[in-house]
Amino acid sequence: MMRQHTVVDSPYGPLTLVATDGVLSGLYMTGQRHRPPEETFGQPDPRPSGEVVRQLDAYCAGRLTAFDLPLHLAGTPFQRRVWELLRTIPYGETRSYGELAGALGAPRASRAVGLANGRNPIGIIVPCHRVVGASGGLTGYGGGLDRKRRLLAFESGRPADNALF
Questions:
Q1: 11-15 contacts: CB < 8 A, separation 24 or more?
Q2: Which are the catalytic amino acids?
Q3: Burial category of 9 from C-beta neighbours within 10 Å (exposed 0-12, middle 13-18, buried 19 and up)
Q4: How many CA atoms lie within 13 A of 44 on its CB side?
Q5: Considering just the CA atoms, what is the radius of gyration of the chain in Å?
Q6: pLDDT, tens digit, 9 for 90 and up, residues 141-157
Q7: Does the global pTM surpass 0.85?
Q8: Which residues contact 67 (CB under 8 A, 6 or more apart)?
Q9: What are residue 46's phi and psi, to 5 degrees?
């Protein structure tokens, strides 16, 4: 198994992209909670995946609302189910942890959904930022609540400083 990484700039700060055998397996923000140690990212990639960078650039420019990339999501079976469900939340919309738990057929598992959400290894592309509390309020986000607020405001077309989250 070969791992490589590259760092790209974004409106949300530097993003570390990690590939396992050429497939995206991590997208980490600076200061992110549950960010793996740098030494696990593999060698620097002098030629980062052009398609990943192209789609991220298009997303950040407001030209892409759904990513179409192969992903290597390593986690428990439950975590992978949660992460796949996150990918079905439409751009500009949110879901609560309870709604996701219900969609998984485990309506009492909202806490477990939250824990899996927090361990999402591919932020932004697997849109864990689109998950909110039962009341619609912002709850934790591995990349920080300010980034979550900015991502949600961006997707809803509102300026981040005027976002009502």
A1: 11/60, 11/150, 11/154, 12/124, 12/143, 12/147, 12/150, 12/151, 13/147, 15/56, 15/124
A2: 128
A3: exposed
A4: 3
A5: 15
A6: 777 788 888 999 999 98
A7: yes
A8: 55, 59, 125
A9: -70, -20
